[in-house]
What we know:
By secondary structure, the chain is an all-alpha fold. It is 78% helix and 3% strand. The chain contains ten helices and two strands, in the order H-H-H-H-E-H-H-H-H-H-E-H. The protein has a two-stranded antiparallel sheet with strand order 1-2. Helix 2 (20-31) runs antiparallel to helix 5 (113-127), helix 3 (37-70) crosses helix 6 (132-144) and helix 3 runs antiparallel to helix 7. The two termini are 24 Å apart. The mean pLDDT is 81.
Amino acid sequence: MTAALLAGVAGLALLDALNPATIAGVALLLLAPMAHPVRAAAGFVTGAYLTVLALGAVVYAGADIAADAVGNGLVWLRRIAFTVAAVGLAVAGLRRLRARIRPAVTVPGWVNPLSAAVLGLIMTGADLPNAFPYFIAIERIVTADVGAARSLVIIGGYALVYCLPCLLLLIAGATRGDRVRRRLGGLYERLGAEKKQPRSVPIAAGYLAAAAGVLTVAVLA
């Protein structure tokens, strides 16, 4: 286990941590009119952490087997990650070619601290296929060949860094609840409330150009 490996994985985890889905999930739970919003947000973060850890272990095991079987077979992991990211960008770009009403994001009435953990698991699991830094980090861990136990420790650290923005928001919500909720309320009005999104060719072109760039990286990986 080298410092370069840990620094590289930590950098990828920090990049992956800027994940709007998980951060928004915690923010919505802190804003939700429920008996224990902080506990629900804590459950959500726990579910997200366990998802990143468990799926990382599964992907690591599969990639390790692939590496042993076909030598340089880890290239497929990189290509799949970048291809999925390119498809996601392309879909986002195409959606901006027509006007649409973005529905408001709300917390279902059945959400409580326990079900919030399940919600965190589902939302994080659904979003991980788009998290190409995650797959690149696992590829580097497999290539470093530091052993299964150390690899799982590194993946656990990756999951912790991935959840760091959510943890910081959770701590802020627990210690300065009213002040944090006021600020989150303003942010929700801009990003989470129902909003009409007009057709935008420049934004669509930007997304499609980014998708083409990422796809080129996938082909050359």
